[in-house]
């Protein structure tokens, strides 16, 4: 073999080897899409997960976080996940009803969680796990539940009692339970994508909405809502989910590291949620743009009595047994609906 031919062969082998090594060195990319601002509890938790995942995999995984509907809006993101265009999401629990798993709408029932202890018992126990398991039929793995907080009602008129919502067009997420909730208040439910709510409030397409304070503040809804009432009537939480085909294809050691990172990010997310909502409420009060009403115990009881019948009305949709499993967790902590 001529020397030149030998050198050329060696060079070719080196090029191929280097190319293969470079290809192997390419990190696994996880596109993590969500619809809220980076400075919300979910936004901060997503960034914390990114930090832990990238550090612990030593660069083998790269998490690209896309907040504020940069990639997909509410109605688009689940389809994008199922198609593999995004690998990870943290949609609100109400999103799974339209996907065909209507049992998740149990989380939307008004006053279903009388305390954070009951909430933790549900999401951290067998009831919460069994709900996440149902996602697998849709090509989705449920990794964790993340808190945002409890919702308050807002509008451009005082909302002292349920009667004050009569006739108001109220923005909701697409959920049969939330639809029933607003109809129980004699309001007109209007499903609108989260990214479009501010403009809808500004232009009068809707008169009011329901949100935890952190979402209301970071989306500047308080600038276009003159009144809000601290009803804490409903819970807003998220399920962190991943494309099943993608997740199953990961090397087992990478998957284990990511599961650990997710566990820590979940503790972080749930720990900061209340503080973020408290800070947002203080900031909105300080702005003077929205007047907040803190109901008396007697006023809250009127809200509860008006909304609790929604539980019974939704038994056929979300499952009577499932609702009663939530009640049983509440009873353990001394609460009864």
From TrEMBL:
Pfam families documented for this protein: DctP (PF03480)
Give the UniProt entry's GO cellular component terms: outer membrane-bounded periplasmic space
Q: Where is the signal peptide?
A: 1-22
**Is Transport one of the keywords UniProt gives this record?**
yes
GO terms (BP aspect): C4-dicarboxylate transport; transmembrane transport
TM annotation in the entry: none
Q: Which UniProt keywords apply?
A: Signal, Transport
UniProt record similarity statement: Belongs to the bacterial solute-binding protein 7 family.
The identity of this protein, by name, is: TRAP-type C4-dicarboxylate transport system periplasmic component
Which species is this record about? Answer: Paramagnetospirillum magnetotacticum MS-1
